[in-house]
Specification:
Layout: H1 3-41, E1 43-46, E2 49-52, H2 61-80, H3 88-132, H4 137-146
Antiparallel strand pairs: 1-2
């Protein structure tokens, strides 16, 4: 085999390899763009099935559109509602719902406050226990840095 033939075969191998890499990159970029557009729209594709992505209250173009349409429908319904201040059944239902909501909110706030206080107590306890065994705050900082 001549030098020229070897050179041509090497160049051809490089071109074929480069073409494969470019096709692979094109495919990867296309998939990334598809996922990004889906994400902007609010569509996730999990387990090969497209669905509206609404986890943790994330909003997207799609969820915003749905929310706006739902809001308009609710406004229509509410605008036709006549509230009779003397209707005892309606007032009792309102009072019951109010009490339930109030209990939920108090519980939620109490849980958060208890969590905050528990974290303070645990921190103080841990610091005190570490001091008992001779572990200084400087040691804690050194441990964080070295870890």
């Amino acid at each position: 085999m001549s030098k020229n033939e070897v050179k041509n075969r090497i160049e051809k191998a490089i071109l074929v390899s480069a073409e494969k890499q470019i096709n692979s990159i094109d495919s990867t970029v296309e998939n990334m763009v598809t996922r990004a557009i889906g994400s902007l729209l609010g569509i996730s594709n999990s387990w090969g099935r497209a669905e509206i992505d609404h986890c943790n209250g994330r909003s997207s173009i799609l969820t915003s559109i749905i929310e706006e349409k739902a809001r308009r429908q609710v406004e229509k319904i509410v605008s036709t509602f006549k509230f009779d201040e003397n209707d005892k059944e309606v007032l009792l239902a309102f009072q019951k719902e109010y009490k339930e909501q109030l209990k939920r909110r108090i519980s939620w706030h109490a849980e958060n406050e208890a969590k905050r206080i528990a974290e303070i107590i645990i921190k103080k306890f841990t610091d005190r226990e570490l001091e008992k065994i001779g572990f200084e705050k400087d040691d804690t900082e050194k441990a964080k840095v070295s870890y």
